[in-house]
Amino acid sequence: MSVGTESSLVRVPKAGELVAAQLRRQIVTGELKAGDPLPSETALMEHFGVSRPTLREAFRILESESIIVVLRGAHGGARVLAPDESVAARHMGLLLQYKGVPLADVYRARAEVEVAALRASADSDLAELEGLVVEAAEAIGDPVAFAKIDTRVHQAIVDLAGSQTMSIMMGMLLRILDAHNTLFMSMRGPDRERAIDEVALRSYRRLLKLLAAGDQEGADAHWRRHLRKAEAHMLDDAAPTLVEVLS
Q1: What is the enclosing helix (H) or strand (E) of 177?
Q2: Which of 31, 164, 205, 210 could connect to 26 by a Cys-Cys bridge, CB 3.0–4.6 Å?
Q3: Pairwise CA distance, residues 21 & 54, whole Å
Q4: Tens-place pLDDT, residues 200-224
Q5: pLDDT over 90 for what percent of the chain?
Q6: 12-80 has CATH 2.40.50.320 classification
Q7: Under CATH, what is the fold of the domain 85-246?
Q8: Which of 246, 153, 238 shows the shortest CA–CA distance to 197?
Q9: What is the pTM of this model?
Q10: Segments of the chain assigned to CATH 1.10.10.10
């Protein structure tokens, strides 16, 4: 009986991948914390029963994932880095570029995540969002500062849902849209943004009022309209591609 079909083949991980997997597990479970030095190469080679080239292959894998950094020199060695969502965001951006996803699709995904978060935000603490609206009012006239606060507003809205998964997803989307906003302002000039920022500030205040009143349906509808207008402002027929935004 023939057994060797492509679907039945199982790839055996290389020794370096296995060592990397064990070290990765220690990092993500907190056994090894950010800033901790890894044991010496000699100690790790003895512990895992592997050669120096195999251990260094494991280090290369973990460095590519940005969860360790290998310092060279007399006082060098491998140190643990905290997992950073920016790494995932870069990979996500590359995948979206490769698949030819239009920038408008990213804006619409953001809108769906935010509206879904608002629907799950009943009885949430609005203090952080209230504080950001105050900061936004103080930043009117400084479009660069306002843009940074605007990003925090969008993140705070998703954080209201209390879902870490949604919050991390939103963080990745916002990194892409921040890059577009930076390009957008560099092309148009910041002086044209004040009127738009004032409209956004009024929209923030309206959202807060609706949420404070417990009007989830009104908040959802209002914020979806706001996001649709924001998308129309940021995109037109000459909108850059994701390749241009993330290059």
Answers
A1: helix 164-188
A2: 31
A3: 13
A4: 999 999 999 999 999 999 999 999 9
A5: 66
A6: no
A7: Four Helix Bundle (Hemerythrin (Met), subunit A) (1.20.120)
A8: 153
A9: 0.79
A10: 12-80
Q: Tell me the two tokens of residue 152.
A: 């925090």
- The region, left, alpha or beta by phi > 0 then psi within -120 to 50, assigned to residue 14 is beta
Secondary structure letter of residue 79 according to DSSP = E
Q: Return all residues near 192 (Cβ < 8 A) that are at least 6 apart.
A: none
What pLDDT is stored for residue 247 in this prediction? 62
Find the DSSP H helices in 14-163: 15-28, 41-48, 52-64, 85-98, 103-119, 127-138, 143-159
Query: d(Cα 19, Cα 52) in Å, to the nearest integer?
Result: 12
CA 121 to chain centroid: 21
- Residue 190 pLDDT: 65
Question: Phi/psi at 79 (nearest 5 deg)?
Answer: -125, 150
Specify the domain boundaries for CATH 1.20.120.530 within the chain.
85-246
